[in-house]
Design brief:
Order of helices and strands of chain B: HHEHEEHHEHEHEEHEHEHEHHHHHH
Strand order of the largest sheet of chain B: 2-3-8-5-7-6
Number of domains of chain B: 2
Order of helices and strands of chain A: EEEHEEHEHHHEHEHEE
Strand order of the largest sheet of chain A: 6-7-8-3-9-10
Distance between the termini of chain A: 27 Å
CATH topology of chain A: Rossmann fold
CATH architecture of chain A: 3-Layer(aba) Sandwich
Number of domains of chain A: 1
Radius of gyration of chain B: 33 Å
Strand content of chain B: 15-25%
Strand content of chain A: 25-35%
CATH superfamily of chain A: P-loop containing nucleotide triphosphate hydrolases
Helix content of chain B: 55-70%
Structural class of chain A: alpha/beta
Bound molecules: adenosine-5'-triphosphate, magnesium ion
Radius of gyration of chain A: 17 Å
Number of helices of chain A: 7
Shape of chain A: globular
Structural class of chain B: alpha+beta
Largest sheet of chain B: 6 strands, mixed, barrel
Largest sheet of chain A: 6 strands, mixed
Distance between the termini of chain B: 29 Å
Largest interface: A-B, 32 and 27 residues
Oligomer: heterodimer
Chain lengths: ~230, ~425
Amino acid sequence: MENNIVLEARAIYKSFNDPVKIDVLKDISFNIKRGEFVSVIGKSGCGKSTLLYILSTMDTDYQGELLIDNISMHGKSEKELAAIRNEKIGFVFQFHYLLNEFTVLKNVMLPGFKLNKYNEAELESRALSLLKDLGIEHLAHKMAHRISGGEKQRVSIARAMINDPLIIMCDEPTGNLDNTNTDMVFDIFKELTEVYHKTLLVVTHDMTFAQNTKRTIEMEDGRILR
Amino acid sequence: MKTRHITEIAGALLLARWKQTLVAAVGVTFSIALFITLLGFMEGLNQLLDGLVLNRTPHIRLYNDIRPSDHQPIDLSDKYKEYYNFVGSIKPTNSREEIHNAQRIIENLRKDPLVLGVAPKITAQVFYNLGNVDVNGIINGVDVEQETKLFFFSDYVTEGNYYDLKNVANSIVLGIGAAKTMMAKVGDVITVTTTEGEQFTLKVVGFFQSGISEFDKTQSYASVATTQKLLGESSNYITDIQVKLKNMDLAPSLAPQYKQVYGVDAEDIQTANAQFETGSSVRSIISYAVGLTLLIVSGFGIYNILNMLIYEKMDTIAILKATGFAGSDVKKIFTAISLSIGVFGALAGAVFGFIFSKIIDAIPFNTDSLPTVETYPIDYGARYYIIAVLFALVTTYLAGWFPARKASKIDPVEIIRGK
Ligand SMILES: Nc1ncnc2c1ncn2[C@@H]1O[C@H](COP(=O)(O)OP(=O)(O)OP(=O)(O)O)[C@@H](O)[C@H]1O
Ligand SMILES: [Mg+2]
């Protein structure tokens, strides 16, 4: 059966026991097709981040089923999940989370070291061309803590792209940026989907940002409204 | 994941906290250096002290003991055969301490492949005559060449020439203590009286200092021939045969064989000097315990610093995991950090240990009781270096193992959410 679904959630439930049992996610089911640009919106505390951690395989403590590239994540070991994350998922956080001990270029190349698909020279030229596409090629050899917030976020995007993943997930990627930088990041995402046919799942608080995406998933109290 | 990339990440983390890691490495260096120095020094002293006795003690000594006759007349009686008999009228018969056929025994022993060398010896009880006073003394008749080769005789002759014992007739090497009481100088002529009452004049050709003052007060050395003359015995007369083996540990098993084959008494060095072995091994155990404790303490230093590093680098670990590094990769990174501290510390420690040993080795150490020693003794055995380095690597690996495991278990979601 040929389909182009990259990610599918089937009846995902999640609850915390802190100190009483709260259900954070209830019966979450949806799928994302190749090339889609999806935004997730909802009130603070409705479970958006929690859902994203589950979808990115970092959180395994949930009920329900998650399929990535039509493969169930159920029962996979920590090592296997790490490998899937490395190869198929790019992640961009609200806080830029670069490794301060390394240069911008090395930060972008790191997931590639793990994947070990390209040799170091190839990896470097890939990283440089990504940085160039994002307009920060000149920062390549700067240390990661010496660049601005907007620049850091672009480096994170380059890092998320390095292994050519199936889907890129972002948790409020513009939450910490001013309007100009937000617009720029949005334009980059748009280009990624339209020109490079990437699949994107973006959690955001920014309504204009969400309105501009092709599809918007709205959440409330751990459920999907639409 | 290539090892090179693991080490690259480990190196970057390490350099980010290079001061702390340097402190940890210096801890390892220091403990290894002290371990090597301590053990080298202790073992040097052990060898020196054991050497005082062991160098000059034959591994097996053959002699004739004076003991009661084994067969008393009552044993011949059929009537009392089944009884315990304690009537002994026959006194010791082997009044001769002489070893029968000594020359042939010596020749046979020299052919034995286990034997390094054989030296004959005679002891003679004498009195050194000092005006009106007679001082008790013992003259050891020795074969100068064999004695030097096997028992380092020449090392202990502090004045005069030991070889004159052989070249000069009726010569004597006096114990330094005896020489002092007699106020004798090299070249003097002294008088001794044998137990048979005969007087001899002997020429002093040197002084002997063993390091054991009680010994030096009474003992002197002369050639075998001179001593035989003192005792009025023939040139076949030998009372002791001293055997030095190639492997000292064989002595206890060989002694009874010699006893049986040659029909003489045989005593091995282990039986004669049991207390020295014990002293040495206790000293060794103490220094190993101290040294290994130092290494363990330095291991705790590494443990602390790695733990701190992990707390500081939580974000880094979370990012590595979020971007697809497995727990085992993170563990490898932190193990690499701890091992590189260990390896660097251990190698530097070995170098410093050698330098400290050299320094101690150069400190003057002069004492009357140890004539051959000029500086503090050090044993440069490679085993201390090997033990220290191996142990350091094991400790640092273990010290890194727990923090590394902790790092590998870090949940990235918790860190990322916590921001
Ligand atoms: N470790 C935890 N233990 C207990 N409750 C938690 C834990 N993490 C999150 N929660 C709760 O789960 C709910 C959903 O949190 P989540 O971070 O997913 O919200 P969110 O939609 O991302 O909100 P925001 O828009 O503010 O980022 C919240 O009510 C929160 O208090
Ligand atoms: Mg959130």
